[in-house]
Write a structure and sequence with these properties.
Layout (H helix, E strand, L loop, with lengths): L7 H11 L13 E2 L4 H8 L6 E2 L3 E6 L5 H15 L3 E6 L6 H6 L10 E4 L3 H19 L10 E6 L7 H9 L8 H17 L4 E7 L1 E2 L10 E2 L3 H5 L3 E10 L13 E10 L8 E7 L10 H8 L3 E3 L2 E5 L5 E4 L6 H14 L11 H7 L5
Parallel strand pairs: 3-7, 3-10, 4-5, 4-6, 6-7
Antiparallel strand pairs: 1-2, 8-9, 10-11, 11-12, 13-14, 14-15
Helix pairs in contact: 5-7, 10-11
């Protein structure tokens, strides 16, 4: 006797209707935002032009002045706007100036950028919860492609307070919140992950670090507890180093900017624990090509021949230049070759790396 066919679509529809918070299928990232640096993008995702995914949570953690806000509230916001993504900044540090944002090429018009001052974790949770209710009322019946793309930036979670902090301050008792902040942050991220996953909505947070006292684990520690880190799809640890180079790469005795030392502590799209030093000169801003020569040399794509570096193109042409001779134009060519060859692309799941070549626009 033939077995009756099981109606999977009907079963799925009835279940998701009965459990409103449930979603079906997979939520692989479809939209990505560049950090503004090709090397950092590549180490995070295995792609030179894609850094932060929508539908996921990404954390940039580091000491003061390490470039967290420059990347998150600056580059990511600008690049999101250029891709038609609405940035929503929740500013707990009250440190973002409109002139600074505009100098980075960001459109600060109210319909292009939403910025809100917040002070408590509860306020962020309430804001995201209410936003998602309104969002689902407007877009839940529409296909993914027709939904408004949004990027939340919380800068920073390290400055957010709990009700205990407020009550103790008013009472003159500063003994601490006894771990409540870590639990509240973990709950915030866990709830947000589930709400944004099926939609073109991403969350980026900046966080603080403190020096490790463990000689066997010397990496700086991220505040907020381990649960906060577990709930994030990507975690980038940052450290501030001095940049003592002029625009031509010559050594100088004075500080010309910062070198943001970025280490990929967690990623689901590439290999973790790889690092890059991103140059951010004071005069010209972030160099999108910084770190590429070192990356290509480390991968063996650039080989030392005497005092020069040699590269063989896809077409068989041999390029030999001094390190400083690898201009942006040559580096663009190498990146295109890497994609064409499919070399060392760590993430082969939701992204078809060979298709990306045609999809992408153009302390010392």
């Amino acid at each position: 006797m033939a077995q009756k066919a099981f109606d999977v679509s009907k079963f799925r529809k009835s279940l998701t209707k009965a459990v409103p918070g449930m979603s079906t299928g997979f939520n692989d990232p479809r939209d990505w935002i560049s950090t503004g640096n090709h090397t950092l993008n590549y180490l995070m995702t295995g792609d030179f032009n894609r850094g932060v995914p929508l539908g996921k949570v990404t954390m940039f953690a580091g000491e003061s002045g390490s470039g967290k806000s420059y990347i998150c509230s600056g580059n990511l916001v600008r690049n999101a706007q250029q891709a038609g993504i609405l940035p929503v900044i929740l500013d707990s540090e009250n440190a973002l100036d409109e002139d600074w944002l505009q100098a980075l090429g960001i459109d600060t018009a109210p319909d292009k950028l939403m910025r809100f001052g917040v002070s408590m974790i509860d306020e962020v949770a309430k804001f995201i919860s209410e936003f998602m209710k309104e969002y689902k009322d407007s877009y839940s019946e529409l296909p993914y492609e027709e939904q408004q793309k949004v990027l939340f930036i919380v800068d920073s979670v390290g400055m957010l307070l709990t009700p205990t902090d407020i009550n103790q301050f008013e009472a003159g008792d500063m003994k601490g919140d006894m771990g409540r902040k870590a639990k509240a942050l973990t709950a915030l991220i866990k709830n947000t992950v589930n709400r944004i996953a099926p939609h073109p909505i991403g969350l980026v947070v900046t966080n603080h670090t403190y020096a490790s006292q463990d000689m066997f684990d010397p990496d700086d520690k991220i505040t907020g507890g381990q649960g906060f880190i577990y709930a994030s799809s990507m975690v980038v640890a940052m450290k501030k180093l001095k940049l003592k180079e002029d625009e031509d790469g010559n050594k100088t005795s004075t500080v010309q900017g910062i070198r943001a030392a970025c280490k990929i502590m967690k990623t689901r799209y590439s290999k973790p624990f790889e690092s890059v030093q991103v140059k951010i000169p004071y005069n010209s801003g972030m160099d999108p090509y910084s770190g590429l020569v070192e990356l290509f040399e480390d991968r063996g794509w650039l080989k030392k021949e005497g005092n020069k570096l040699a590269y063989t193109t896809v077409d068989g042409e041999v390029i030999k230049e001094f390190r400083k001779g690898y201009t942006d134009e040559i580096l663009d060519r190498i990146m295109a070759d890497v994609v064409a060859r499919g070399q060392d692309m760590a993430y082969q799941g939701a992204i078809n790396v060979k298709d990306q070549a045609s999809d992408e626009p153009s302390e010392d």
